[in-house]
Write a structure and sequence with these properties.
With about 170 residues, the protein is an alpha/beta fold. It contains six helices and seven strands. The chain is about 40% helix and about 15% strand. The strands form two sheets. The chain has a five-stranded parallel beta sheet with strand order 1-6-5-2-4. Strands 3-7 form a two-stranded antiparallel sheet.
Length: about 170
């Protein structure tokens, strides 16, 4: 596209270095101002949550393995395995019965004849406190109030030398 004679005459006296210099100075000023605000501003929300700063609110208190072993030896507590069914050999605490999240109502009905709301229970799983706590909350909703959650699950039980029984596929 060709410019007309009047446009060429208007642009002939125009110096391009002035606007570019001003744009560069404005850009540099904006960058310096941005960096300064990053350093001067206190940290807002972290980019990643620190897991040590948060505590999971559990439906029942935690118990350590040593106490759970003592309760097991005394025979005053019923142990509840909350892990899902698996194929093959399944390790669990001897005498423990299964109440699982997916089949909670059916499992609870199966043991309803000998479980009372006054019994004491220790719930354990594979270390996933969230699932065990959900089952504890559902048991509390049905009147079971004497509940403890085994800290560390079956892994901590094994590490402490607790007895283990083998059942095929996690059957009762």
């Amino acid at each position: 596209m060709r410019l007309g004679a009047s446009a060429q005459a208007a642009l002939a006296g125009f110096k391009w270095s002035g606007p570019f210099r001003e744009a560069g100075l404005l850009l540099l000023f904006a960058l310096v101002l941005t960096v300064a605000t990053w350093f001067l501003r206190s940290d807002g929300l972290p980019l990643a949550a620190d897991p040590m700063g948060y505590e999971l609110e559990l439906a029942a208190p935690l118990t350590v393995t040593e106490k759970a072993l003592a309760f097991y030896d005394e025979g005053d507590y019923l142990f509840v395995d909350t892990r899902p069914r698996v194929d093959g050999d399944f390790q669990t605490i001897p005498g423990a019965f299964f109440i699982r999240e997916a089949s909670f109502d059916d499992d609870l009905l199966e043991y309803f004849d000998f479980m009372t709301t006054e019994d004491h229970f220790i719930l354990f799983g594979d270390g996933d406190l969230f699932t065990v706590s959900n089952i504890a909350a559902r048991m509390q909703d049905r009147g079971y109030q004497n509940l403890l959650i085994l800290k560390g699950g079956l892994t901590s039980w094994l590490q402490a030398g607790g007895e283990i029984s083998h059942r095929p596929g996690g059957e009762s």
